[in-house]
Specification:
The structure is a homodimer of 494-residue chains.
Chain A lengths: L10 H14 L12 H8 L3 H13 L3 E4 L3 E4 L3 H4 L18 H21 L12 E2 L12 H13 L16 H15 L8 E4 L2 H8 L10 E5 L3 H9 L4 E5 L4 H11 L3 E4 L13 H14 L2 E5 L24 E6 L11 E4 L2 H10 L9 H12 L2 H28 L3 E4 L6 E6 L5 H10 L2 E2 L1 E2 L14 E5 L5 H16 L1
Parallel strand pairs in A: 3-13, 5-6, 5-7, 7-8, 8-9
Antiparallel strand pairs in A: 1-2, 4-10, 9-10, 11-12, 12-15, 14-15
Helix pairs in contact in A: 1-3, 2-3, 6-13, 7-13, 8-9, 10-11, 14-16, 15-16
Chain lengths: 494, 494
């Protein structure tokens, strides 16, 4: 390396360019260590800051990772260059290949290489074969987030006098405009009558629950929860130190209601419009019985309506909240399935009595979500862009649901039982030959298909469905669904 | 009103313009009700959507509020037009007078007017006399938030391939680049050696504490806390259902340490570099004793270093975390005092053992802060803009500290005792004549000066300083400090 004072290029950029070229040419294999900052600065007769800046740039651009105390190590850049199907591409043509997926994959690969180095003493590259078809649940299809609109509205807000709100502590319950937009749509689209004041903007399902539990008595109150159910909610309840009592959902409404009644719980967490993970819809009669239980025992129901926007068949049963006459239901909705899981925004609609308790408990607290996100989302909604966006996402998910159910029928037929309920962003697929789900997941992965185990959703593990795997369609592209299921059928049934 | 089809102006805009002109001309007094959407749409032979859109625009622009079930009501726009000193101005010349302060003030005023209407049957305007000098603590001076840089970086991120991260669930501990920037500066500037992995990005002091307490045993572990201390932290501990044990800070180090030792707590919350609210600095010897207590009792210390950036006199004592050899200290820092309280971002640095527990407890959870905020802040830091920004804010706060202490000396002399410690964003002022703080705050407010009561910071209320008020300088403009204190002296001492 020779630093050229006359080139007009800053030294740190020259150092960065030198290493980048070397890495791309293969001169620095993945896992190998960069020279120490001190040593290289002495060699090059430049300041350590110069080298540090160059190394930081290498890290930022995904060429290296820093391991404090050890130094800087070269990443496996083949991952930055690969563009497998069904995954986030990180095009090298773009000068900013810092996608999170690429960076973290690179880091994982690098960590693996480093661990291997420690064991074998030689730098080697260990890029796992990238999955071709990822039927994950949760993440959205790349490009779902309306980045251009978000950018335009953010610009607009930060150029207006509104930006002065950034210098203040804002309303702990959320920005009024956003709450108004939410409340208005709940009334118009879901028959949920509420005021904007009852809507509390929150930073995700788990933290909402954590906050809600502040209003209950940890020593006395327990939480009833569907079993199987969302493991993230169970973890959040346990982190808040409350007892969780499982209520069976797969053995009929009577068993479920009996478990709820026997629980003695003061709060029941349910997903009536699309039970997670079975996707079933709670019958109207069961809803009424559950409300009666709450009325009679002075308990509350947390209705997580996370998937209301995604129903593909019959007209949905009305939300519990819409038939709740005595203020026993806390309604919860989210933007993670339709807008962005990375924005961390959901909301609670509190009944009057809990709203009072909430206001007292959180009187000296601050918003759960940044002011800017709230204002931008509020304007995205009030301008009508939200409604158009949602329709597009709904239409796409409907096509993917149809493609997935059709592919499963065609490729697997009677060899599997598919829990089809015309709702949700995934299907549970039960393989009839009784192989354990771990084996099914492994066989699939070896064929480049990612499907997921379901054991963790059961609190009572002995009730879990042995051969049941989760096949999600929120993230995978429509065109990849059929070939993905074909590959899966091949892996499972030959 | 006459809707003109030929004007080229959309109908909803014409409806909006009509009402805006009327409101500004005083034809629709504050508190009066707008015509019903249905009725007006029928009158004007246009769709209800048109009227709804116009009314929503009136709400957005601060001219009206919606009261679901009742209709739309005119706001008191005198608050939108007023531009008192030391407060956020909402210039009418700008077509977007939607500052939060203005909107919510307008709403409060409107609510008051509506309540009054209900009682007296006539619309009246109730604008409270605006304070001229607000010595609040917490909010920052208008214009502190670097909106232009934030906007430019946000643009950049949302135009790059990075934006695809918005479609995914990201690292629950935070974005690596931001954690790296924080860790690097902690090492360089505060002698705190930590890895980026130990830095966990969080959404504010209160929710950090709530999360941290998930790692403790609610049935057994109590939390020791300085008394007086930050009431928001006390509330957060109580919301998590843990016992809080007060430890006296104004009766010397021995009393404090005796209280800590007697508490039996497993976690102690302290603010060693600027005790809140007294602004005192914990002596090195006391820090060592506190660490010994933690080592001996297997307890942890949460060091809230919220005000490290703002020291105006001697070189600061090193953070507890920097002399902690056995991993007993959780270090907490914030961006609320230097960048924006509305962004809701702070961080914890966890010692190895707690980091392990954290990773287990939060394995299936999600980030506390939106991905976008984290990425933008990370880039703001890595580009060097953060360091320049911080220097500017520090210089301004130093000037304000000097102006405030000088004004208090000049205008009040020996009639008050000022707790000056060369740090923080407020001063405690103890009036020697013994009048109760409630009276002092009321006298000040009547003279257009806002200072604040301090009682709430004491758990043991009988220890509170009867005549002590809080005078903050983070939000007020430098030029307003001297006249504000003159007005305060006049109000208190004539």
């Amino acid at each position: 390396m020779h630093l050229d004072e006359t080139s007009g290029t800053p030294f740190y950029q020259q150092v960065f360019d030198h290493f980048r070229a070397g890495i791309e040419a293969g001169a620095y294999p993945a896992g190998s260590k960069l020279p120490s900052i001190r040593g290289l600065a002495a060699d090059q007769k430049c300041s350590r800051n110069t080298i540090e800046a160059a190394y930081q740039l290498l890290v930022q651009e995904g060429f290296a990772v820093s391991r404090p105390g050890s130094g800087y190590f070269i990443c496996d850049i083949s991952l930055l260059q690969a563009t497998p199907q069904g995954r986030t591409a990180a095009p090298r043509a773009d000068m900013r290949p810092r996608t999170r997926a690429a960076a973290s994959s690179a880091q994982v690969a690098s960590d693996a290489a480093l661990a291997d180095n420690a064991a074998h003493g030689a730098p080697t590259s260990h890029a796992p074969a990238p999955a071709t078809y990822d039927f994950t649940y949760g993440n959205l299809q790349t490009g779902t987030f309306p980045a251009a609109s978000w950018r335009a509205i953010t610009d607009d807000v930060l150029l207006s006098v509104e930006r002065s709100a950034a210098d203040t502590y804002t309303d702990p319950c959320g920005e009024y405009e956003l709450r108004h937009e939410i409340a208005w749509r709940l009334g118009a689209l879901r028959s949920i009558e509420c005021t904007p004041e009852q809507v509390v903007v929150q930073g995700g399902t788990q933290s909402s629950l954590q906050n809600l539990l502040a209003l209950f008595d940890v020593a006395r109150d327990a939480v009833a929860m569907e079993d199987p159910g969302y493991d993230g909610v169970r973890a959040a309840i346990e982190r808040a130190h409350f007892r969780v009592l499982p209520c069976r959902v797969m053995e009929g409404a009577d068993a479920f209601l009996a478990d709820v009644r026997a629980s003695g719980a003061r709060l029941a967490y349910v997903t009536p419009s699309s039970q997670f993970p079975t996707s079933g819809s709670m019958a109207l009669e069961t809803r009424r019985s559950l409300l009666s239980w709450a009325n009679e025992t002075d308990a509350y129901i947390l209705e997580d309506d996370y998937c209301r926007d995604f129903r593909y068949k019959e007209r949905p049963v009305p939300p519990l909240r819409s038939i709740d006459e005595r203020g026993r239901v806390v309604y919860m909705g989210t933007f993670s399935k339709s807008l962005s899981p990375a924005l961390r925004m959901n909301y609670l609609v509190l009944p009057p009595e809990l709203l009072e308790r909430w206001r007292t408990a959180f009187a000296g607290s601050y918003p759960a979500v940044p002011w800017l996100s709230q204002v931008v989302l509020g304007r995205f909604m009030s301008s009508g862009q939200w409604d158009r966006h949602l329709r597009r996402v709904q239409a796409r998910n409907r096509r993917k649901y149809d493609a997935l159910t059709e592919a499963l029928r065609t490729c697997m037929g009677e060899r599997v039982e598919v829990m089809e309920n015309g709702t949700g962003l995934h299907l549970l697929v039960n393989v009839r030959d009784g192989r354990p789900q771990e084996e099914l997941v492994t066989l699939a992965r070896e064929a480049g298909v990612l499907v997921y185990e379901t054991n963790k959703y059961w609190m009572q593990r002995d009730h879990a469905l042995k051969s049941c795997v989760l096949v999600g369609f929120s993230a995978i592209a429509e065109k990849d669904i059929e070939p993905g299921i074909q590959a899966l059928a091949q892996a499972w049934f030959g």
